[in-house]
Structure formats: structure tokens, C-alpha cells
Amino acid sequence: MQKMHIYLFLLLTFVTSLTLAQSPTTKLLVLGDSLSAGYGIDIQQGWVNLLEKELNKTHKVKIINASVSGETSSGGKTRLPALLDEHKPDVVVLELGGNDGLRGHPLKLLENNLQTMIDASEKAGAKVILAGMQIPPNYGPRYSTQFKVLYATLAEKNQAGLIPFLLEGIGGKAELMQRDGIHPTAEAQPIIVNNALPEIKKNLLPQ
């Protein structure tokens, strides 16, 4: 009986490996800021790298991490066309806006920049996922609330994917934040993966 169980396990493992080998590879472009660039930690510990490892357990995925610390939505809008031409991604994750908010940029500018990037990505044949952000209430309740709602509004308008809040379960917890109080620690990265995983999985190419 034990030998039979081992045989079935090996057979299932072989079939799964064969299926993945024959499946198409989803190219996923992450365009973000320091949260995705792994600021203050080893990039291998960052959520984008951990996400790729997790996804490749069940899918064939290649992630292009084009995130840059300090990036704003204006910078992302400028860089995106060349990235789309070079990598031809199937899915684009837009993790931008946090620096716009922290610098008090007009929300209309952020909205327009994100819309331009959504349009460019869709024109290039890629699905879009917005990574929702939030900013501290000390920026004013009106600004903070409108900032938070902006991502959901754009996602609904464009029928795009949405990660409601990338730092859910992390923001406000000192033990999961670096000394600056802005960037998550290495220990927080698996939580970010869990926040992003459901929406990203829904948008991968069929296996």
C-alpha cells in the first residue's frame, strides 16, 4: 500500500510538472516605487521576488520588476511606454501613487497619470492591476479619503484588477516597519504577497 502511495505521488508530480512545462508563461510587469523595489532590505526578500516564487508553484510566471525608489506616477508614466515595448507583458501591476500622496501632489494629476498608464497598458494588450495605497490622516481627512477612494474608482471605471490596499495588516504596526515608519521590513514582505496574490492569480494566463 505504501509503495502504491509513493507511485501515485510520483505520477502526480510528473503530470503536474509536464503540464506546467507545456503551459504558457505569463509575463508580469511591476511598475512601482520603493515598496516594490525593496528599499532597505535585500531585494531577494522583497515581495515581488517572493511573489514570483509563490506563483511558479502552480503557474509559469516571469516577473519584470521595473520599480524604482522614489518613483512618482509622473515618472512611471514617462517610463512605461518603453517598458511595454521591450517586455510585452501580459499583466501590468501599477504600484504607484504613494510618493505623490506623501508630497501632497494634486489628486487629479495622480488620477490622470494612472489613467494614462492604464490606457497604454491595455493598448499594448496587457491586463492591468492597481495596487491600492493609503496615506496617513495627518494630510487631512478630505485628501486622505479621496486618495484612498481614487484606486477603487479607477479600477471600476476601467474594469481593471484591484489590490484594495497593498499594505493591509502592515501599516501602523511599528514592528513591521523600518525605522523611517514608511517602508515595511523583510518580515512584512510575505504579508504583502498574501495581499496581492488573489488578484494577481485571477489575471494570469490559463494553465
Determine the fraction of residues in helical runs and give it as a percent range. Answer: 40-55%
Sheet with most strands: strand arrangement: 2-1-3-4-5
Kindly state the mean pLDDT as a whole number? 92
How many beta-strand elements? 5
Q: Pairing-aware structural class of the strands and helices?
A: alpha/beta
Brief description of this entry?
By secondary structure, this protein is α/β, with parallel strands linked by helices.
Q: Describe it for me?
A:
The protein is of the alpha/beta class and 207 residues long. The chain is 50% helix and 12% strand. It has eight helices and five strands. It has helices at residues 2-22, 34-37, 47-55, 73-87, 98-102, 107-123, 141-158, 189-202, and strands spanning 26-32, 61-65, 91-95, 127-131, 161-163. The protein has a five-stranded parallel beta sheet, with helices on both faces. It is globular, with a radius of gyration of 19 Å. The model has no long low-confidence stretch (mean pLDDT 92).
Properties at a glance:
single chain, alpha/beta
Write the layout of secondary structure elements.
Blueprint: H1 2-22, E1 26-32, H2 34-37, H3 47-55, E2 61-65, H4 73-87, E3 91-95, H5 98-102, H6 107-123, E4 127-131, H7 141-158, E5 161-163, H8 189-202
Parallel strand pairs: 1-2, 1-3, 3-4, 4-5
